[in-house]
Design a protein that fits this description.
By secondary structure, the chain is of the alpha/beta class. It is built from 21 helices and 26 strands. The structure holds beta-D-glucopyranose.
């Protein structure tokens, strides 16, 4: 994205009053969904008065056209509006929540679902989305982990590139593309103790190594917009963070697109305690490089005063206005404000394709956590099956926390999906209990059904708004009386398969240890029921892997694989080692964990050449074999460790992945090529460094170290 102004923008800016310029920096909600304070009612008045540059939370071809017509025909300069919306995991067609989709470890899939979301959003008049969300999340208490790609920076960077490409296509100018917004820069995922909007206390190193790289990747991929986090870094809210927004993002990364504040975040600088009033808040944000004020009313109210007092310069305002108008230019809005081609695109013919993509994405997101005695798949339809639990037929919940324009009636929950797969089976169903609480009266009926059935599918988990924004939970386990329901059903002693729907890993170790099989089903979207049926019956062999470590207990949080080594690692039973007295150090399931209906083995791992010089490539080869009875897909994960460096390096870092589809008995060798650039790290001064010495590479199915194959190379100068 280039911020060099076109002649049209230069001419326009010459004709604009100061008030009209500031109006271009103002973004208001039309009120469909609101995640903060503010009255959506007055946007038309603001628009007609030239005090509105972009609008969000309005979609529908006619609705958008009517407002755009006012902008183009009834305002003094006829500047078209930007129309934004949170399209986080699908617009009409709902895909799995990002944390679920991340479990596919599949960039092509991520791009495809974003493309479809863009096509559907654009068809309804939108031209900007507040996605992708790129906050590395290591705390399942934080509800927004659901919107993220999980705990790993490298994987989130891959997700960033794929999503930006998917939303923006080859050119944002196309009426079929949406401008993407990478959010929330940065380290929002580290909100203290997982409580949303709370302070952030992380090292500058963690900022550089873990939290910033996905945003840098999105900038390299040409993302149109960035959104700073609500939270702070080093006691400075990101909305006012000059060192990060100006020095790193604009100067170092060369980002020339727009920076859009989060909802009311500029005004919230007052509550943060760094501004006395809206004028000071507006001054701080503009100086930090925030171009658009979303719902804070701070620019409209505060910038005229700040300009008058000399707190900000006209030049600074002009820079922001230039960037906003250039985004409109890049979107082609001056020439084609209605982008009608997006509506005329042949969506009807593509509905089936969209649904297929939703099914594919959902199947690829389901993680098989346990499968005792290979109880799954159920290849023979059961004679009588009990499908129990409050998530069994929960159509609305399948939408997940950000449902775009998804309709409840379009969602396929588990019960009808399984019914369609087993038309001859007798199906017994009751919810047993509510998700959130209520009484225990329904448990007896559920137990009775479990007794009468050959098999129980127990559908438990969270309500969809228990994750997502403001969806923090101090105790991320089964809400309400679901644990009692589970215990009663498991006590029956017949096979129980658990479908666990949630926006996060749930600390439900007892349940996981007792059930015969557990599938993490997140919130899978439109095709949830069909996808689950395909996995349960073995039509689809599960291939997903956890993009986040799954804790044994809430007391382990945060638990993640890429931790730094302790000076006293746990090696024995000696007391003075890094450990808990009452919990293991390791999560219940590591990053990358996910079972298949077949067995993959790894052999012949090599890293070559054994001696490298700066600028060289290192080739990692491994042979993966399918030693089971059915075909399956495996994702090989390649990790690195720098065992001796000038700063302590993580015990493992994901550096690459390779996907294989293998028939039973088939072996295949896959290769990942890294360069010495992948071996660099921020040194003591945070500048990128490459240090000579030994580097260890690992490969395997998950981050569980004892299962990985190892090879080493030496970097010499
Ligand atoms: C969220 C953003 C979102 C915005 C607009 C905020 O509360 O933090 O992620 O894009 O609302 O809906």
């Amino acid at each position: 994205m280039s911020a060099r102004l076109t002649d049209r923008v230069v001419q326009l800016m010459r004709a604009m009053s100061v008030e009209e310029k500031i109006g271009q920096l103002n973004m208001l909600t039309a009120g469909l969904v609101t995640t903060g304070p503010g009255d959506p009612a007055n946007y038309l008045e603001a628009l007609k008065a030239g005090r509105l540059g972009s609008l969000f939370n309005l979609f529908g071809r006619k609705q958008v056209r009517d407002v755009q017509r006012i902008a183009v025909e009834e305002t003094r300069l006829g500047i078209p509006l930007i129309f934004g919306y949170d399209i986080i995991h699908g617009h009409r067609t709902i895909f799995p929540i990002p944390l679920g989709e991340a479990a596919a470890f599949d960039a092509a899939l991520w791009e495809r679902t974003a493309r479809i979301a863009a096509l559907e959003g654009a068809a309804e008049g939108l031209n900007l989305t507040f996605a992708p969300m790129l906050d590395v999340s290591r705390d399942p208490r934080w509800g927004r982990i659901a919107e993220s790609a999980g705990e790993d920076s490298w994987l989130t960077s891959l997700f960033a590139k794929a999503k930006v490409k998917g939303f923006q296509g080859d050119d944002v100018k196309s009426p079929l593309s949406l401008a993407a917004t990478a959010k929330h820069l940065a380290a929002y995922g580290a909100a203290m103790a997982g409580r949303d909007y709370a302070e952030v206390e992380i090292s500058e190193r963690a900022l550089h190594e873990v939290y910033l790289p996905p945003f840098e990747a999105s900038v390299k991929a040409g993302v149109a917009a960035l959104m700073p986090a609500f939270t702070d870094m080093d006691s400075i809210p990101l909305t006012a963070h000059v060192a990060i927004l100006r020095d790193i993002v604009r100067r170092q990364w060369g980002f020339e697109g727009v920076i859009i504040s989060d909802y009311n975040a500029i005004a919230e600088l007052i509550a943060h305690g760094i501004a006395a009033d809206l004028t000071e808040a507006a001054t701080l944000a503009l100086k930090a490089g925030v171009d658009i004020d979303m719902m804070g009313h701070a620019y409209v109210q505060g910038l005229p005063k700040a300009l008058q007092s000399g707190a900000v310069t006209m030049d600074l305002i002009d820079q922001a206005v230039g960037r906003v108008l250039m985004l409109k230019e890049q979107l082609g809005l001056f020439d084609d404000p209605y982008r009608d081609a997006a509506a005329n695109f042949d969506h009807k013919a593509r509905r089936v394709e969209y649904r297929d993509a939703a099914l594919d994405a959902a199947r690829r997101s389901i993680v098989l956590l346990t499968n005792r005695n290979n109880v799954l798949p159920i290849r023979q339809a059961p004679r009588r099956v009990a499908i129990l639990g409050p998530l069994a037929n929960a159509q609305a919940e399948m939408l997940g926390p950000w449902s775009g324009a998804g309709l409840i009636e379009d969602m396929v929950p588990f019960l009808p999906g399984l019914r369609a797969a087993w038309p001859q089976s007798e199906i017994l169903h009751t919810a047993g209990v509510d998700i959130e609480g209520g009484d225990l009266d329904g448990i007896a009926a559920a137990v009775d059904m479990a007794r009468r059935a050959d098999l129980t599918i127990l559908c438990l988990g969270e309500q969809r708004f228990m994750s997502g924004e403001a969806g923090s939970r101090g105790r991320p386990d089964l809400p309400g009386h679901q644990a009692e329901l589970a215990k009663a059903v498991l006590d029956v002693g017949k096979p129980v398969i658990v479908l666990l729907s949630s926006g996060r890993p749930l600390a439900v170790t007892d349940l996981i240890e007792r059930a015969d099989a557990v599938l993490a089903t997140w919130f899978l979207g439109s095709e949830a029921g069909h996808a689950v049926a395909d996995v349960v019956t073995g039509l689809w062999n599960p291939s997903a892997k956890l993009p986040v470590s799954w804790p044994v207990d809430v007391g382990q949080i945060p638990v993640f694989y890429a931790h730094r080594p302790s000076g006293r690692p746990k090696l024995s039973d000696f007391r003075y080692e890094s450990k808990y007295l009452d919990l293991p150090n390791e999560p219940l399931f590591p990053f990358g964990h996910g079972l298949s209906y077949t067995r993959f083995t790894y052999s012949g791992f090599s890293a070559s050449p054994s001696e490298l010089r700066p600028g060289n490539k290192v080739t990692l080869d491994v042979t993966v074999s399918n030693e089971g009875e059915v075909a399956g897909e495996e994702t090989a994960l390649f990790f690195m460790r720098d065992p001796v460096a000038s700063v302590s390096r993580p015990v493992l870092e994901l550096k690459g992945l390779a996907k294989l589809t293998l028939a039973p008995g088939q072996s295949q060798t896959v290769t990942v090529v890294l360069t010495t650039a992948d071996m660099m790290f921020p040194g003591q001064d945070f500048a990128s460094k490459l240090e000579a010495g030994e580097f260890l590479f690992f490969v395997g199915s998950s981050a569980r170290e004892e299962t990985l194959l190892k090879a080493s190379v030496r970097l010499v100068r």
